[in-house]
Amino acid sequence: MEINPYIAIGSAIVGLLVGMTGAGGGALMTPMLIMVFGIKPSTAISSDLVAAVLMKPVGAAVHLAHRTVNLALVGWLSLGSVPAAFAGAWFLHELGATKNSEANIEIVLGVALLLGVAAMIWRAFLDHRSGERTLDADQITVRPVASIAVGLFGGFLVGMTSVGSGSLMIVLLLFVYPAIKAKQLVGTDLAQAVPLTLAAAAGALLFGHVEISLTLSVVIGAVPAVLVGSLFSSRAPDAMIRPVIGFAVFASGLKYIGVPTVLLGWTLLAVILFGGGGWLCWKKPWRVDAPATPGAEASAI
């Protein structure tokens, strides 16, 4: 059994983003293992799911300590996602690990992630126009049926592909709970991912192609980095976190659908320069609204 230091370094970079955004398995870690290190997709998916069992609780614990988790929402999501994740791992086993089937899985993942990014942008535009106020986790009214449906869909995908516990689940939650703050979204997602990844990892161990050395390489780099990223996301302002989530998912989606590495690099650079500049001009995250003066407060009463 040999630990790969390069995979550990790459996993540390991804782990930092996992802690910051909640997106991780299929959206960031699995593409890195497949595209950069040449790991077979079915092996990368299964090994990453097992590694996530140690990664997700670290981030969830930080957000629980900062009270950025809606435990009621976590419960309803898990009710759907846990059995669905196990079913997804079984379905991947039945589908087979042929080259053609794994290529089809990658394309489906890429399209789903890109649609998710488009949905996030549209949601942000609608919220900006309506001036909707964001809410803390304990202020959200939980919708049980919709939450179970999100859990079922996301759980099945994470079991089959390792996508869902972070990237797609976050996108779905943004539509069901559009007013939730980004830090509350990340914290709740990381917490619900703990039982979800446990179920998916159990399925991967039974039906998948887990490589212990690969899993340990990922864990050594990712776990401490997740801690650092979670500490940042639990304190960072909402306007800073959502663009990072969108960019991470967008990059993975492009790579999954087969965009060449050089073209991908130029595309992401263009997004950073033009999209990032436009976002800064639009949101002005550095601006701090002046507190109301005592006189103004008195006149408003």
N-to-C terminal Cα separation, in Å? 70 Å
Total helix count? 12
Question: For the CA atoms, what is the radius of gyration?
Answer: 19 Å
Name the overall outline. globular
Proportion of strand residues: under 5%
Whole-number count of domains: 1
**Class derived from helix and strand content:** mainly alpha
Total beta-strand segments: 0
* Chain-averaged pLDDT: 76
Low-confidence stretches: 296-301
Order of helices and strands: HHHHHHHHHHHH
User: What does the oligomeric state look like here?
Assistant: single chain
Features:
single chain; globular; disordered C terminus; mainly alpha; 301 residues; 12 helices
Would you give an account of this structure?
The chain is mostly helical and 301 residues long. It has one domain (5-285). It is 78% helix and 0% strand. It has helices spanning 5-21, 25-36, 41-65, 71-95, 99-130, 144-161, 167-176, 182-207, 212-233, 238-256, 261-283, 294-300. Helix 3 (41-65) runs antiparallel to helix 8 and helix 10 runs antiparallel to helix 11. The radius of gyration is 19 Å and the shape is globular. Mean pLDDT is 76; it is low at 296-301.
Topology:
Blueprint (H helix, E strand, L loop, with lengths): L4 H17 L3 H12 L4 H25 L5 H25 L3 H32 L13 H18 L5 H10 L5 H26 L4 H22 L4 H19 L4 H23 L10 H7 L1
Helix pairs in contact: 1-2, 1-9, 2-3, 2-10, 3-6, 3-8, 3-9, 4-6, 4-8, 5-7, 5-10, 6-7, 6-8, 10-11
At a glance:
With 301 residues, the chain is an all-alpha fold. It has helices at 5-21, 25-36, 41-65, 71-95, 99-130, 144-161, 167-176, 182-207, 212-233, 238-256, 261-283, 294-300.
